[in-house]
Design brief:
Order of helices and strands: HEHEHEEH
Strand content: 5-15%
CATH architecture of one domain: 3-Layer(aba) Sandwich
Structural class: alpha/beta
Strand order of the largest sheet: 3-2-1-4
Shape: globular
Number of helices: 4
CATH topology of one domain: Rossmann fold
CATH superfamily of one domain: Vaccinia Virus protein VP39
Radius of gyration: 16 Å
Distance between the termini: 47 Å
Number of strands: 4
CATH class of one domain: Alpha Beta
C-alpha cells in the first residue's frame, strides 16, 4: 500500500462539513494512503507536482485545470500565491472546502473563455493532464496571445 506524506495534502473542513465527491479516473481526490484503481494516475499526478515544486518557490502560480485542487494545495506552501482554475464547479467547491489556505484561491472558469486575470499576473503556469480537454481555439490563443471571445481560430 502506498503512503503519502500527510503534510503535503492539508485537510480542511468548513462549517458545512466535508463535501462528498467521487474519484472518476479523470478526477482524482487527495491521496489518502490507498489508491485503488487510480494508483498509476495518482502517481503520475504526484510526480508532476513534485517536479513543479522548485519552480513555484516564492512565485505567483496558476494551476490551470486544477481538478479537486490537491496539486495546487501541494504547491501552495512554496508559492507566494496560487490561483487554481477549473471548469468543474463541484471540483472547485471541493478544493475550496478541503484545501483552504490564505495563499490559495479557487476559481470556476468557463471552457474556452479568457481567464479572469490580467496579463503578467503569474510567474509560473502549471497544467497537468489537461491538454486533451482544451479546444484547438484555446491552444491557438495560448500560442499567439489572449483571444477575445469572438476571435476565430
Amino acid at each position: 500500500m502506498m503512503r503519502w506524506a500527510a503534510d503535503r495534502w492539508p485537510l480542511q473542513q468548513t462549517s458545512r462539513g466535508p463535501m462528498k465527491l467521487e474519484s472518476t479516473g479523470e478526477r482524482l481526490l487527495a491521496p489518502d494512503g490507498s489508491c485503488g484503481e487510480d494508483c498509476v494516475i495518482g502517481l503520475m499526478h504526484a510526480a508532476a507536482y513534485r517536479w513543479a515544486e522548485p519552480f513555484a518557490h516564492g512565485k505567483r502560480v496558476l494551476d490551470y485545470g486544477c481538478g479537486t485542487g490537491y496539486g495546487a494545495a501541494r504547491i501552495a506552501p512554496r508559492a507566494t500565491l496560487v490561483d487554481a482554475v477549473d471548469v468543474a464547479g463541484d471540483a472547485v467547491e471541493y478544493g475550496q472546502q478541503r484545501f483552504a489556505r490564505n495563499n490559495l484561491r479557487f476559481h470556476r472558469i468557463q471552457r474556452d473563455d479568457p481567464l479572469p486575470f490580467a496579463d503578467g499576473t503569474f510567474d509560473v503556469v502549471l497544467s497537468f493532464q489537461v491538454l486533451e480537454h482544451v479546444s484547438e481555439r484555446t491552444i491557438i490563443c495560448w500560442k499567439h496571445g489572449e483571444c477575445s471571445p469572438s476571435a476565430d481560430a
